[in-house]
Design a protein that fits this description.
This protein is an alpha+beta fold and 175 residues long. The chain has five helices and eight strands. An eight-stranded mixed β-sheet has the order 1-2-3-4-5-6-8-7, sandwiched between helices. Helix 1 packs across helix 3. The two termini are 24 Å apart.
């Protein structure tokens, strides 16, 4: 899919490319980052290259999160239509946690889906034990909807989860 380039106060959200493999490996191989993700912890840059190549086949809009101040790629996220809701997800390098960058990136993806695709209904979920991810969703204006579960793609772990949703008019931030 042809992803646009988005900008926030501190970030540039741009398409991921094969050239990002080594940098993306920094967070995709970090168990602190991958603990609650559906994918397993990456063990080789070759696996990251395969993942980046597979994004071409997906319908979601995928973005790399790049710091404006120094051009460093620090995370990634995506947003796409799923069962009537624009579902989004994200991950970010551990050394950039708790700085509001993930929330900033998520809001930019929501704004993009709203402005360019007429999105009105949004959703996301997180493992119950990953409370920080829930805070990101709440800061984006989503509200807890129900409990559920998801599993790692390889079946190695199952997580109880919290699903969040919001209709556009309920979002508590300025688009």
């Amino acid at each position: 899919m042809n992803e646009p380039v988005l900008q926030t106060k501190r970030l540039i959200l741009r398409p991921l490319t094969a050239d990002d493999a080594e940098t993306a490996y920094l967070w995709l191989s970090d168990e602190r980052v991958t603990k609650y993700m559906p994918y397993t912890t990456y063990t080789s840059i070759s696996d990251v290259r395969d993942w980046l190549d597979s994004l071409k086949e997906e319908d979601n809009f995928h973005f790399g999160f790049v710091l404006k101040e120094n051009g460093v790629l620090i995370g990634s996220g995506d947003i796409g239509l799923n069962k009537g809701f624009w579902d989004f997800g994200y991950n970010i390098r551990y050394d950039y946690w708790n700085q509001g960058l993930t929330t900033e990136a998520a809001k930019a993806m929501i704004k993009y889906a709203y402005d360019c695709h007429g999105a009105r209904d949004f959703s996301s979920n997180h493992a119950i034990d990953n409370e920080a991810s829930g805070k990101v969703m709440e800061k984006c204006g989503l509200q807890f909807y129900k409990y559920g579960e998801y599993r790692k793609f390889d079946g190695s772990a199952v997580f109880r989860s919290k699903l969040y949703q919001a209709h556009f008019e309920e979002l508590r931030f300025t688009l």
